[in-house]
Specification:
This protein has 341 residues and is an alpha/beta fold. It has a single domain (40-340), classed as Aldolase class I (TIM Barrel), CATH 3.20.20.70. It is 37% helix and 18% strand. It has helices spanning 30-35, 73-85, 113-124, 155-172, 186-196, 217-222, 243-254, 269-278, 289-300, 306-320, 330-340; strands spanning 46-52, 59-62, 65-71, 90-95, 129-134, 148-149, 152-153, 176-179, 203-210, 259-263, 283-287, 324-327. The strands form two sheets. Strands 1-4-5-8-9-10-11-12 form an eight-stranded parallel beta barrel, surrounded by seven helices. It has a two-stranded antiparallel ribbon with strand order 6-7. A hairpin with a 2-residue loop joins strand 2 (59-62) and strand 3 (65-71). The longest helix has 18 residues, at 155-172. The relative contact order is 0.13.
Length: 341
């Protein structure tokens, strides 16, 4: 016998006390696994982010986000028709302005790109849930999420502008406004402005815990929004902090948020779970651009099975406690789920 071989006696009889509990019994077939599955993905779970631009016949793929495009309003019409046919329930709109200035003027203009996009979405499908990102970074010449005074962001002055943006989106027909600037008091200022302007039925999805993440890189290309100086760590959250995230969620709910969001998703599944356990409000998670781009890059190199990995990752986000997921995978997943049904 070779020295590395193992030798052992095989019992001649079955154990006197056979195993009573065998979890594998319920994994023997696809139907059994389906019967006891705890977490299910459905098309209704997803909101699809869109990037809208000025111009005509613009459908330009974003290089770091394969299969995601800059869309002019005429192309947006086609996109909303396709999204609706896939039975996706909602979109989140981001706009790229024609020009930028210190005050982000197009952000709150009646004929701003997002305001016009909201009208297009509602004209194509009045039942579609249209959400709008309320921030300033795409619109300001300096690329920060608020108004700069003496080289720093003036938090309280920024609140006035964010409220004005939210009202302009509601006037255009938005169902949900989603403030993402991470300014203290932004939810309360927006809620007050909406209510004062007779938009008490417009909901607020608060980016309650938005972390200063390295996973936003592709988005900054998509939205043309990198800061021209410094970074956003003075207002976005430290990735190391969990208890602070729960405090931010609590504050936004106290100020009138109807739904709360954790962003990013995959590196913050623990935050999603803790938030779900601590609060009863509807909870969203944003599967952000860098998370999307990693899967796309690996799949295109043949390193991963895109379908299997995407469904597994999105299931993990929902299993962690998210009610719905904002994801650039939404259209593809809707097709896969239809094929699987």
């Amino acid at each position: 016998m070779l020295e590395h071989e193992l030798s052992f006696d095989v019992p001649s009889e079955k154990p006197a006390a056979p195993l009573r509990v065998r979890p594998r019994r319920l994994r023997r077939s696809a139907n059994l696994r389906d019967l006891v599955r705890e977490t299910e993905l459905a098309t209704r779970d997803f909101v699809y982010p869109l990037f809208v631009v000025h111009g005509q016949d613009v459908r330009e793929e974003i290089s770091s986000m394969p299969d995601v495009f800059h869309l002019s309003l005429d192309q947006l019409k086609k996109e909303i028709a396709e999204i609706s046919a896939l039975h996706l329930r909602g979109v989140l709109l981001f706009g790229l302005p024609a020009a930028k200035d210190e005050w982000g003027s197009e952000d709150f203009a009646d004929d701003g790109i997002v305001q016009e996009a909201v009208r297009v979405c509602k004209a194509v499908n009045p039942e579609l849930i249209v959400m709008t990102d309320v921030c300033m970074c795409q619109y300001t010449s300096h690329g920060h999420c608020g108004i700069i005074r003496d080289g720093v962001i003036d938090n309280d002055l920024t609140l006035e502008y964010l409220a004005r943006v939210a009202v302009s989106h509601a006037t255009a027909g938005a169902d949900v406004v989603a403030p993402s600037a991470m300014m203290d008091g932004q939810v309360g200022a927006i809620r007050a402005a909406l209510d004062t302007n007779n938009f008490s039925d417009v909901a607020i999805l608060a980016y309650a815990a938005k972390f200063a993440s390295a996973f936003y890189g592709p988005f900054r290309e998509a939205a043309d929004s990198p800061p021209k100086f410094g970074d956003r760590r003075q207002y976005q959250m430290d990735p190391a902090n969990a208890r602070e995230a729960l405090r931010e969620v609590e504050l936004d709910l106290e100020q009138g948020a109807d739904m709360i969001m954790i962003k990013p998703a995959l590196a913050y599944l623990d935050i999603i779970r803790q938030t779900r356990d601590a609060f009863n409000a509807p909870l969203a998670a944003y599967n952000v651009s860098g998370e999307y781009a990693m899967v796309k890059a690996a799949a295109r190199n043949g390193w991963l099975d895109e379908k299997k990995v995407t469904l597994e990752l999105l299931t993990s986000i929902k299993r962690a406690g998210a009610n719905f997921i904002l994801t650039y995978h939404a259209k593809q997943v809707a097709r896969w789920l239809a094929e699987m049904s």
